[in-house]
UniProtKB/TrEMBL annotation:
One of its GO terms (biological process) is methylation. Gene3D superfamilies: Vaccinia Virus protein VP39. One of its GO terms (molecular function) is S-adenosylmethionine-dependent methyltransferase activity. This is Methyltransferase type 11. Residues 48-141 form the Methyltransferase type domain.
Length: 205
């Protein structure tokens, strides 16, 4: 479903104060373990996190890397800044859209995004921007929920998607693996422990 970036931003701004509480159960049950596994692969001097949100990944940042993190929602960034100050996390926070990054080509060793591309209006445009700012040999690490490969579940997800987008701004039927494959990455690895609808991916420039 196509929704403007401004509409999606407004929905995340609206949810920002309660976002951690809304996802608290799934975060503790499943997502936190997957985030830890994702960030264990992050390496290099300069690392970019896309879609920092409220700062749920702060605990997993590598200690010896220069961290930059962006989000397109001003009110999500307010929550992230509060958490950054409370936890004393060393990270530079920027208000920025992944579809139009202000960074130079070949800037980062690793780019990390978790549950982000469900909300990007033009996901392939955003992925191409990440490819651009990665250094040659750099890696993109993604944790994303995707459309089920089960045709019955996929049909239900497609049916429900307009409602979910209207409520929270996230698409539940994105085919992010195919979108990554459509970019120019030299190699793409899908973690074999990934489930049908939760994919942990590593793509190398």
């Amino acid at each position: 479903m196509s929704v403007s970036g401004d509409k999606i931003r407004q929905r995340y701004d609206r949810l920002a104060p309660w976002f951690d509480s809304l996802e608290g159960f799934l975060e503790g049950l499943l997502f936190r373990r997957l985030r830890k596994k994702l960030w264990a692969m992050a390496e290099g001097e300069h690392i970019l996190e896309v879609g920092v949100g409220t700062g749920k990944n702060f605990d997993f940042y590598p200690a010896d890397s220069q961290m930059t993190a962006i989000d397109f929602s001003p009110k999500m960034l307010v929550q992230a800044k509060r958490k950054q100050e409370r936890k004393q996390i060393k990270v530079h926070l920027d208000l920025m859209d992944v579809q139009t990054l202000c960074y130079a080509d070949n800037s980062f060793d690793t780019v990390v995004a978790s549950f982000v591309f469900c909300s990007v209006p033009q996901p392939r445009k955003g992925l191409k921007e990440l490819y651009r700012v990665l250094k040659p040999g750099g890696q993109l690490l993604l944790l994303e929920h995707v459309l089920s490969s089960n045709k019955y579940m996929a049909a239900m997800m497609n049916l429900l998607n307009p409602l979910v987008v209207r409520l929270v701004g996230a698409n539940i039927n994105r085919q992010t693996v195919k979108n990554v494959q459509a970019c120019s990455f030299r190699s793409i690895f899908i973690d074999p422990s990934s489930s049908d609808m939760l994919k942990l991916m590593r793509a190398v420039k």
